[in-house]
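Model: Ready when you are.
Researcher: Fold this.
Model:
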Amino acid sequence: MGLDDDAREYHRRDPPGKLEISTTKPTNTQRDLSLAYSPGVAVPCRDIAEETDRGYEYTAKGNLVGVVSDGSAVLGLGDIGPLASKPVMEGKGVLFKRFADIDVFDLELDTGSLDSFVDRVAAMEPTFGGVNLEDIAAPTCFEAEERLRDRMAVPVFHDDQHGTAIITGAALLNAVDIVDKELADLEVVFSGAGAAATATAKFYTSLGVPADQITMCDIDGVITPQRAAAGDPHEHVSQFATDTDAIGGTDLADAIEGADVFVGLSVGGIVSREMVRSMADDPIVFAMANPDPEIDYEEARAARDDTVVVATGRSDYPNQVNNVLCFPFVFRGALDARARDITEGMKVAAAEALADLTREDVPDAVRRAYGDQPLEFGPEYVIPKPLDERVLFRVAPAVAEAAVADGVARRDLDREAYVRELEDRLGGSREAMRAVLTEAKRDPKRLVLAEGDDETVVRAAHQLVDRGIAEPLLVGDRDRIEATLDGLGFDFTPEIVDPAETDLDPYVELVYERRKRKGVTRREARDLLYENDALASALVAAGDADAMLTGRTHHYPSALRRPLQIVGTADDAEFAAGVYMLAFDDRVVFCADATVNQDPDADVLAEVTGHTADLARRFNVEPRAALLSYSDFGSVDNDGTRKPREAARRLREDPEVDFPVDGEMQADTAVVDDLLTEDYEFAELDAPANVLVFPNLEAGNVAYKLLHRLGGAAVVGPMLVGMAEPVHVLQRGDDAADIVNLAGVAVATAADE
């Protein structure tokens, strides 16, 4: 099927459309229903009647946006009516939820007049925390927004105007820096005089571009004072009317000659190579007509030998201007500040936050999503990508702070606490990791990265320094590491440990002493230390580094070998084990062992349970441990079920074990409250287990991967427990974020020693 047929099937697939309503509170019992509705619901109703701000406390108002349209200017389809616009409005709701966890009611209104439209939207103020106007034709959209902003005490935002303005404003802030120009000196030409173009031109003046240096053109040519006075095309462009004598002509080609910036919000194919060549040195070309830009990306770049910064509305080229970079995050900040309006200062704050984020290293997940597109700050990367989740953490707080500064916020937000709140919206693993990373930042330790000449490891090292988590030592070939640093353009000078230039003598003796009874001679110990993993392990064992990571570029068993041989297990431990933390929306669980011990006996299972419980506490999780099997408390009796049963008995009888533990039990018994507390009321656990100890490696590995892939759990790990020093083995192919998380665990553990 082609795209058209695929889109039809996508939308009609049962249930039709793209949105549904779901409950956020339990509705399983009679008491639940009496709280959700009558008689319990009367209590919050009375409270809200006494104090209206309690509506934000007791209802969904504070996270609910109305997406409202009359269907008069839908995409490039024109005036197709309210019902035909509904798929677009539902899609807008999908983007609100996906990128900022904002709920939406889409409202398609058939009103017949501007007055009726404004009255109906304004009457819904008690329902919504904000209103997003969408796909309303100019100039009606200007007056509708203005009148609704005057009448309503919640933010009203016409995204077609301001979303484009904010994103291109961010791109402009970066582009002028790249081409070494000043905003106050720019000559800017617009093609298009609709809602988006007009709002963008006005926003550029807020950023510092003088209004008299902006020329606007439409299908009839340059908008002159005479045309503006006559209301052609509409009064909102009058401040940008240009005397044609100043530019020597009346059409777009005349206007664009000598211009520093071209902004296209009109139709495709109207700008030629020759027109781009006529622009000033190092021009900026934002050709945003969609799907066909005013000039193709390649055409604009090829027109000149100097720097040409080009942005389009297309996702298959660099620098895509897409409003999803703006509206979810602007509303998130406005809603959370309980703003009465979205001010010019809030828009500027959003643009500046986007511009600043572009200059930072891009996460691996974003790089993978965009394939071969360049994602380093420069002419081909002047605005972030929509799939970069950091946009939420930068733009929303900036908008909320601006709302407070501009006096439109009902609520003041502590930025650090607010960022934590936003992170928690994206999953429980962030909340759990935050405690560990905060602890690591209090006392950053020397962390040796055994694969120091791997680009992803270098990028992770840069992030560790930038975030104050660790002092990285990169083990590897110095020339390769320095070439990687140069290629990434980091202002970052890490400590490099090159085996070829390091005095190995102190470490030779250490390795020899630990391995001589395993057949290793001094000469072989020296040769061994030319391996990155061996040298990194020796650095930790000798106390010259506090913690170690390895394993990104080779398989787990081979990566684990040298740390086990040289660092070894702790004095009070006989066995190491691999633990994964899996974070779901409503709980965090720790799964062991999934990487090390293939067929553990009761001794191993008991020791691994204790190590994993200690690890859980590091994440501020009070452990409740279950030894898992396919049997419940003796329902099956064989060698396999006796091992976890015996391990659980030993732990229960050990006076030094200070956490509840039981088993053997089936997995659902361990994690389902009713099964555990009703069917097995004698069990030591009074709530579902959060430390799950599997009977063998095969079961543990299979289970954690199913939970991750089918259960949607976010995963941190594997974390190696039982080692003499904080050593962790990454999964092959881990990205920089994974490395940073595991580094945080290693450093926090080292801080306790």
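Researcher: Now this one.
Model:
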Amino acid sequence: MTLEFAPFIPWIAIALLAVLAVVLSVLGFLRGVRGTGIRLAASIAVLAALANPLLLQEERDPLTTVVPVIVDRSQSQQIAGRIDQTDQALEGIRERLGRFANIEPRIIEVTDPGDSDAPSTKLFEALAAATTDVPPARVGGAIFVTDGQVHDIPAENQPLPFDAPVHSLITGKADEFDRRIEILRAPRFGIVDEEQELTFRVFDDGEASNQPADVSVRMNGEDLGIVPAVPGAETSFAFRVPRGGNNVLEFSVAATPGEVTDVNNRAIHLIEGIRQNLRVLLVSGEPHAGERAWRNLLKSDASVDLVHFTILRPPEKQDGTPINELSLIAFPTRELFVEKINDFDLIIFDRYQHRGVLPILYYDYIAEYVRNGGALLIAAGPEHAGQDSIALTPLSSVLPATPTGDVHQAGFYPRLSDQGKRHPVTRGLDGSAVEPPQWGRWFRSVDVGRTDGETVMTGDGDRPLLVLNRANEGRVAMLLSDQGWLWARGFEGGGPHVSLYRRIAHWLMKEPELEEEALKARATGRTLEVTRQTIGDAPGPATITTPSGEAIALDLNEIQPGLYRGERRMTETGLFTITNGDFSSLVHVGAVDAPEFRGMISTTDMLAPISEKARGLTTRLDAGSDTVRIPDILPVRGEVRVADDRRMLIRLTDETVLKGVNTLPLFAGFAGLGILLLAVSAMWWREGR
């Protein structure tokens, strides 16, 4: 109860009346006037009535004590055993807190942020959000259920938002061990066939080992060998970029018996292969209109180093004209086809025929060059069907088609075959979607018999026109017509000769984008996109294996002939494996150096200083035999000064909420009237004597 005043007149007026009453009473006492005491009492009663004293009584209800329970549901908590421990701990905490009617638990489950590329465990951020709507005095404590890998722990000099105990219940086991691998330094770009260097490190979290770990290295799915690496020490690895475009370098260290997870036992690095210069040897068997189309295309690309020779006069043509008057440069056959043949990325024979310029043995060298990984393009004209055809030399062992000896002479539209509509070299060529194709006609092609590889373009009567084939490690393309220059000249509207020629060359150079059978995956944020390229039947769904080991089926929809695509937003981050049939691909969703994967073993070290500072308890839940041990809860009044090493202390709040106020005027109603009448009557009675 409290006493308050609500005066009827200003306090200054009451004060003046009080002074006047005191002065009169003092004079009365000095002069000995009888009844002065009663008059003073009556004056006091009147002044008290004017001050209007009120007796106030507040009605209050006690507020509950808020206890946030922050549950870690991050990826590191998905390890086998920790999920069950977390669920059991949460159920036990609910039951224990439920025994106290004046404690209000707030359960906050923290997962990886879905829009983050670098997931981390931010429990203190969740704790602050859970207590923003209550004053610090109402927070009785906080309980964390986590593996201890927390990435937003306050600094040592940073205070907590409340003065109450903070308890940490740690999942996992005390003697956990984990081995992981990280790529420390690596180039993002590399020149094809030039040596590059990468540095990685194997980490042993927990009980360290001094024994070297065997790290398997793969480039684009092919084994590069095994590298021994001492855990904790930096290890260098030298490699060569095998091709232009995207290259995937994969490092994996074998799982160690007893380690908590093998999710972080692999690491990948993407390196973009750059061809410093594409070295092309173009040999034209004779001057003709089509050779300029090839020459102009190759010379227009600044990244191409072109060596072009045109045979102006074969050896059998002897007319007495001196050699120095026929050509500027003699044809260096031995230098080109013996000594430096492996320096070329692509060899093009444009309407070339065997007429004694090249010794017969050199064709065998060229065939061997192809089988060892080289690229050969034959742009055939009528000479390819004659007796001097290079198809009648040892080069025939790598050619995908043999001429019949006939040359078809008639106008026709080059068309895409069924395979050509699906093959990345010819798929979607401008003008191919209509019938007849929206490009000009050609008028000559070389007839061939049975073909190997893929016939992607056909001529008149479905005659093979463009044939692509592999020969061991190398590739061969045969364009069975010399009429492509008509497109370059714009005849009947021309045609996509630049696009076609460039794609053929890039396919021969093994550009990944033009592989007819390929599985590719890329990540944009948390969205995983899978692309399957095939010239066969529909490949069916792809299988996504997540870092936690879950297998997810992903339907692939045909967006173009031979091109299938599907995408899915992933809830996890890390290294994903995508498989479809015999093909597999790796992709990393999220940042490679995300904090969530740097440490996977459970630990008490990170949260123990916070609990000690806040007079809380840090303890492990593991009690053996798949059971957990949850400390009891002890509510206390007043400030918590000492931590309890066996129980979780909760500071009960003294906060209340005002429900209402009862007001009792002391000089109002019959009580006040009676006091005033009593004072006046006493004064009248005294003066009447």
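Researcher: Key takeaway?
Model: The radius of gyration is 46 Å.
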